[in-house]
Design goal:
alpha/beta, Helicase, Ruva Protein, domain 3, Dna Topoisomerase Vi A Subunit, Chain: A, domain 2, 2 domains, 4-stranded parallel beta sheet, two-stranded antiparallel ribbon, 6 strands, 42% helix, binds zinc ion
Length: 201
């Protein structure tokens, strides 16, 4: 093991930073030095922002989003289309869709996807709440924004069956060529999905 170059407090800061996604021990050390060099502008405000976020963190009882208020900012937004419910696996997917600005609707966070391998069954997910929310008056479309993996698609089929009796249209994301993607780099599965789901030009 490498010899510690700083006191335990700074070593702890580096160890915690190294647990962040995308940061290894080397980049964590660089990030720690960056914070220390900008103590006033960065280290102090970051510590304060993390403390406040940690104190006020809540899970929205309605959609499952993470925010500092319940209902969350999205659920309280009256400008959203209440007829569309977008179903996602987790909060990162919700935030990714929000960044895209593609749909101004409401969300439902499942909290995972069904997985025989990992032992994830319907009772581990917010499935009952999904059916309840899909049954609410005014909901006309459910968009299943789930991963294009075997587990993601199994979950999509399962959820579709649960709301088949309801007057809602169930849709899913298109599979195909990514924006900016070159055809000869794509795998056969993606290419054949793109051909099957071709749209009029
Ligand atoms: Zn919410």
């Amino acid at each position: 093991m490498a010899q510690a170059v700083a006191g335990p407090e700074i070593e702890r800061l580096i160890q915690l930073l190294a647990r962040l996604p995308g940061l290894g021990p080397r980049s964590a050390r660089r990030a720690a030095l960056h914070l220390i060099a900008r103590r006033e502008q960065l280290l102090g405000p970051l510590g304060e922002a993390m403390r406040v976020a940690n104190e006020r963190l809540l899970v929205c009882a309605s959609c499952g989003n993470v925010d500092t208020s319940d209902p969350c900012t999205i659920c309280r937004d009256a400008a959203r289309d209440p007829s569309i419910l977008v179903v996602v696996e987790g909060v990162p997917d919700l935030w990714a869709l929000e960044r895209s600005g593609a749909v101004k609707a409401r969300y439902h966070v499942l909290g995972g996807i069904l997985s025989a391998l990992d032992g994830v069954r319907p009772e581990h997910l917010a499935v009952d709440a999904f059916v309840k929310r899909s049954s609410e008056p005014g909901v006309a479309e459910v968009i299943l924004a789930l991963s294009a993996t075997v587990d993601g698609q199994t979950t999509a089929h399962y959820l579709t069956d649960l709301v088949r009796h309801l007057p809602v249209r169930v849709t899913r994301l298109a599979h195909g060529v990514p924006v900016g993607g070159e055809l000869d780099y794509l795998d056969e599965g993606t290419l054949s999905a793109a051909i099957r789901q071709r749209t009029a030009f």
